């Protein structure tokens, strides 16, 4: 029987992630509907390219620090708590500010979510030990 979960601990968002730079959690966890990466950029560093996607939209979630984001002809500041959705065709780039930046990027195929999570969830009879 296929196991219904996978669990990983990638360490702290601060030191451990800084040592790795980037963790692609989707492969490690066996995700099949989206990719999730955890990323750390040293102060004022940036991936040296602008990119688009063929099929996937992305959401960038800033966990700590601050920086700048570019989509097409616009550049704007981002900081802890910022969520940025980018359509596949959006030409995007990211840069850390003086504090460095930790962010999560989730990508999934545009249009693939056909129902909201509240419509997809199904309550069942079993209980957890803390209930
Ligand atoms: Zn991307």
Outline the fold blueprint.
Layout: H1 15-20, E1 22-24, H2 25-29, E2 35-41, E3 56-71, E4 74-79, E5 83-86, E6 92-109, H3 117-120
Antiparallel strand pairs: 1-2, 2-6, 3-4, 3-5, 3-6
Describe this entry's structure for a reader.
- This protein is mainly beta.
- The protein has three helices and six strands; from the N terminus they run αβαβββββα.
- Strands 1, 2, 3, 4, 5 and 6 form a six-stranded antiparallel beta sheet that branches.
- The chain starts with 14 loop residues before the first helix and ends in an 11-residue tail after the last helix.
- Bound molecules: zinc ion (ZN).
- Zinc ion (ZN) is lined by residues 51, 53, 58, 107.
Summary?
By secondary structure, the protein is mostly beta strands. The chain contains three helices and six strands; from the N terminus they run αβαβββββα. The protein is 11% helix and 41% strand.
């Amino acid at each position: 029987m296929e196991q219904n979960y996978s669990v990983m601990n990638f360490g702290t968002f601060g030191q451990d992630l800084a040592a790795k730079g980037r963790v692609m959690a989707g492969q490690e966890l066996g995700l099949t509907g989206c990719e999730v990466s955890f990323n750390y950029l040293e102060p004022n560093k940036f991936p040296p390219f602008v990119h688009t996607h063929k099929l996937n939209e992305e959401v960038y979630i800033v966990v700590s620090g601050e920086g700048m984001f570019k989509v097409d002809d616009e550049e704007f500041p981002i900081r802890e708590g910022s969520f940025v959705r980018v359509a596949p065709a959006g030409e995007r780039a990211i840069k850390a500010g003086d504090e460095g930046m930790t962010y999560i990027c989730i990508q999934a195929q545009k249009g693939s979510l056909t129902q909201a999570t509240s419509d997809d969830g199904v309550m069942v009879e079993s209980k957890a030990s803390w209930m």
